[in-house]
Amino acid sequence: MLLETHGLTANYGQFRALFGVDIAVAEGECIAIIGANGAGKSTLMRSITGVIRNEPGMVLHRGTPIGALSSAEIMKRGIAMVPEGRRLFPSLTVEENLLIGGQARQVPGPWSLESIYGLFPILRERRKNSGTALSGGQQQMVAIGRALMSNPELLLCDEISLGLAPVVIRDIYAVLPRIREGGAAIVVVEQDIGKALAVADRVYCMMEGRVTLVAKPADVTREAIHAAYFGEAA
Amino acid sequence: MYKLTTRTRAGTTTAIVAVALVLAGLPLPAVTSRGVIQDLFFILTMLTLAQLWNLLAGYGGLVSVGQQAFVGIGAYAMFAGVILAGWNPVWAILLGGVAGLLLAIPTAFFAFRLQGAYFAIGTWVIAEVTRLLIAQWKTLGGGTGTSLPREATSNILGTDAIRALFGVREAAARDILAYWLALLLVVIVTGGIYWLLKSRLGLALAAVRDNSEAARSVGVDTGRLKWAVFLIAAAATGLTGALIFMQTARISPDAAFAVTDWTAYVIFIVVIGGIGTIEGPIVGVIVFFILRSALADYGSWYLMTLGVIAIIVMLFAPKGLWGLISSRSGLHLFPVRRRLTGPKIEGGI
Amino acid sequence: MIWVDTLVQGILLGGLYALFAAGLSLVFGIMRLVNLAHGDLIVFAAYLILMGVTLLGLPPWIAALIAMPLMFGLGWLLQSAVLNRVLGKDILPPLLVTFGLSVALQNGLLETFSADSRRIPAGSLEGASLDLGIVTVGVMPLLTFASAIIVIVALNALFYHTALGRAFRATSDDAVTAGLMGIEPKRIFAIATGIAMVVVTIAALYLGMRANFDPSIGPARLIYAFEAVIIGGLGSLWGTLAGGVIIGVAQTFGAAVNPEWQILAGHLAFLAVMLLKPRGLFPRAVD
């Protein structure tokens, strides 16, 4: 397995946000993690990327425990993150934002400044602009490009459609297949069930810090997802 | 019925012990030497300054590195009252408090425009400016300073009675008077801060310290609160400064505005003892005095040790020695936390 | 004519203050760390250079070159072992730790080197001057000013044209996201403090060659440096130079009126700027 979590727990002080989450991502696979606000999706991403530290064995990368490593160490192993809210660096230009994504991990691969400008041509025009001077959709492109610059084995996309217009979301999602062609596995965290089902090989649904459903999009019914997403009562 | 209270058994014990200590402290000059009285005076005034700095930084979030401005201006105002207006030194001490308050107004007006670290440096600069301006005041000795005139020191209010009572010389009588005044001041300041923290103002202070944005959103006027804390601390620091220099009877800009004596030591006392508690400065001043006595013969090693201890405490016990004691024992000698008391509910709350 | 001379001397003095301040500005800009021991570290570096000169018989420039890597190491160690542990949302712990360091360093120097005034011998440069027609300027102040410019140009080049500089700016913006980019913020901070200490060594060279120094003068240098940084605005190195020049010019004009007003005039200039522009003249980064 490229990435596994085993009984992953996470706390914010007294408050427990994850209760033993198990997920697995195979090489080249595309996984979607869906769930309502507060289901623990972002906490899961923060735990995998080392923003929240865990016990070593709770997160495995190719079988190696990485749960206690720092964000930087995890990133250098080829797990790149498109963080929620884009989080571009305001002091850096668009091009510098892209460059910084690749400077700590330089490995051969399909992604370079050139190929990312090929993927998002508008960024080439804006490359001297400050990252924060762009529209939301363009900022999202920079954030994705920035993560790709390290030629990751696994790309984690946290809420990449949040706050964007539908037409922009469609453009952003249209590049995911091209990223997969480059060889990277993808984890997409989404609140939008339709988007997630369309793109993923497998879907994990989370609720209240637990995984409530694991399925292939083709095999799963609306009702099952509804129950897993909102709880039995809904 | 349920009641919100800050009263605990430890708190009541503290009150009794405090009253007993103060009562025991009053007749002390009759049985101890002048040296002990001078040491106690030093401890009490440092404790007062430490409580006041702790009020600013530990409760008000105002990390001032310029408190020497208020010590100095208070001391100089006292000297001015005695030398220029012919006041009795005891009454002139009150002038020190007024001067501290007056200096605090422009200081706050300026420094409150600055955030965090800027605030710290801003207060320091203002203290330097005040020192340099005072050094230009030739009537009070300019840069070299001056002494209280003989006729003033020999006529300090109450010293005649003290001389008659204890049969001591004039200088010793002044020390005893200063000691009593310091005792009074430390009781007023510590008691006042405790009362402040238990009042609604204290609740607002705690809210601001924990989360200033949130406090503002529930209607706490953070700006007014900071002004209040800053002015109170400045006035009381001015009083303390005036008292300290009434005892020494000699003043110079470098001594009265010394950043080491009136801010560095004070910060170390609070940090080592435990910032953000009333107990902290008390523990801190005891440790400080023991270190000072033990290392007195080693010159600058003493200050170096103090600096290193402060660093170690910040690294490994950021809540200070009292924080260590209190987290082990759960003891709060000055309880300020509100607790709900009343009949127990089945199964607990 | 005398005013032109005063102005030029003030500007050149500002170069010295900018040198004191550049390292502080760098660290402050990247990690919002207020190093209250900065002035004492300059004095420490001056003693280090002095030891190279007196004990090893080296020329001051060479002694400073040797001191640079040592000071870099010291800065790196200080940051990794001590300051990184107390950095956080609350500014009080780092403030108190560096305050403790300041007092410890000052008194450690006092114990080691005594309170005697010392000076780094600069040979023929001492007292040499250049006649520029309308004014005569000392070679040493001119060299100081030129060094300040070179240091600022070099730091800016590092900041804006290298991968390390990119990492500095990114970490300054958002340390958590920088971590997601494979950048270890604590390592970046350690390097930044190391570089700041190299600048401190350059400042120390001029501090020690231009005038006498003793262990107690650190805090005053810290205040001048801080005033320059704050006047210039957070994170702007050219702003820091401008701030240094403002303090320097205010001081020389104050001294021209009354020698006792030199320091006071500098502080008053700082207070005036703070009243008009509390965030400084050229703020780059936001708090």
From TrEMBL, chain A:
<dbReference type="InterPro" id="IPR027417">
    <property type="entry name" value="P-loop_NTPase"/>
</dbReference>
<keyword id="KW-0813">Transport</keyword>
<keyword id="KW-0029">Amino-acid transport</keyword>
<keyword id="KW-0067">ATP-binding</keyword>
<dbReference type="GO" id="GO:0016887">
    <property type="term" value="F:ATP hydrolysis activity"/>
</dbReference>
<dbReference type="GO" id="GO:0005524">
    <property type="term" value="F:ATP binding"/>
</dbReference>
<dbReference type="InterPro" id="IPR003439">
    <property type="entry name" value="ABC_transporter-like_ATP-bd"/>
</dbReference>
<dbReference type="InterPro" id="IPR052156">
    <property type="entry name" value="BCAA_Transport_ATP-bd_LivF"/>
</dbReference>
<dbReference type="InterPro" id="IPR003593">
    <property type="entry name" value="AAA+_ATPase"/>
</dbReference>
<protein>
    <submittedName>
        <fullName>Branched-chain amino acid transport system ATP-binding protein</fullName>
    </submittedName>
</protein>
<dbReference type="Pfam" id="PF00005">
    <property type="entry name" value="ABC_tran"/>
</dbReference>
<dbReference type="GO" id="GO:0015807">
    <property type="term" value="P:L-amino acid transport"/>
</dbReference>
<dbReference type="GO" id="GO:0015658">
    <property type="term" value="F:branched-chain amino acid transmembrane transporter activity"/>
</dbReference>
<comment type="similarity">
    <text>Belongs to the ABC transporter superfamily.</text>
</comment>
<feature type="domain" description="ABC transporter">
    <location>
        <begin position="3"/>
        <end position="233"/>
    </location>
</feature>
From TrEMBL, chain B:
<feature type="transmembrane region" description="Helical">
    <location>
        <begin position="117"/>
        <end position="137"/>
    </location>
</feature>
<feature type="transmembrane region" description="Helical">
    <location>
        <begin position="36"/>
        <end position="57"/>
    </location>
</feature>
<feature type="transmembrane region" description="Helical">
    <location>
        <begin position="225"/>
        <end position="245"/>
    </location>
</feature>
<dbReference type="InterPro" id="IPR001851">
    <property type="entry name" value="ABC_transp_permease"/>
</dbReference>
<protein>
    <submittedName>
        <fullName>Branched-chain amino acid transport system permease protein</fullName>
    </submittedName>
</protein>
<feature type="transmembrane region" description="Helical">
    <location>
        <begin position="303"/>
        <end position="325"/>
    </location>
</feature>
<dbReference type="Pfam" id="PF02653">
    <property type="entry name" value="BPD_transp_2"/>
</dbReference>
<keyword id="KW-0812">Transmembrane</keyword>
<keyword id="KW-1003">Cell membrane</keyword>
<dbReference type="GO" id="GO:0005886">
    <property type="term" value="C:plasma membrane"/>
</dbReference>
<keyword id="KW-1133">Transmembrane helix</keyword>
<feature type="transmembrane region" description="Helical">
    <location>
        <begin position="12"/>
        <end position="30"/>
    </location>
</feature>
<keyword id="KW-0472">Membrane</keyword>
<feature type="transmembrane region" description="Helical">
    <location>
        <begin position="69"/>
        <end position="87"/>
    </location>
</feature>
<feature type="transmembrane region" description="Helical">
    <location>
        <begin position="265"/>
        <end position="291"/>
    </location>
</feature>
From TrEMBL, chain C:
<feature type="transmembrane region" description="Helical">
    <location>
        <begin position="130"/>
        <end position="159"/>
    </location>
</feature>
<dbReference type="Pfam" id="PF02653">
    <property type="entry name" value="BPD_transp_2"/>
</dbReference>
<keyword id="KW-1003">Cell membrane</keyword>
<feature type="transmembrane region" description="Helical">
    <location>
        <begin position="6"/>
        <end position="29"/>
    </location>
</feature>
<feature type="transmembrane region" description="Helical">
    <location>
        <begin position="221"/>
        <end position="249"/>
    </location>
</feature>
<feature type="transmembrane region" description="Helical">
    <location>
        <begin position="91"/>
        <end position="110"/>
    </location>
</feature>
<dbReference type="GO" id="GO:0005886">
    <property type="term" value="C:plasma membrane"/>
</dbReference>
<feature type="transmembrane region" description="Helical">
    <location>
        <begin position="41"/>
        <end position="71"/>
    </location>
</feature>
<comment type="similarity">
    <text>Belongs to the binding-protein-dependent transport system permease family. LivHM subfamily.</text>
</comment>
<keyword id="KW-0029">Amino-acid transport</keyword>
<dbReference type="GO" id="GO:0022857">
    <property type="term" value="F:transmembrane transporter activity"/>
</dbReference>
<feature type="transmembrane region" description="Helical">
    <location>
        <begin position="261"/>
        <end position="276"/>
    </location>
</feature>
<feature type="transmembrane region" description="Helical">
    <location>
        <begin position="188"/>
        <end position="209"/>
    </location>
</feature>
<keyword id="KW-0472">Membrane</keyword>
<dbReference type="GO" id="GO:0006865">
    <property type="term" value="P:amino acid transport"/>
</dbReference>
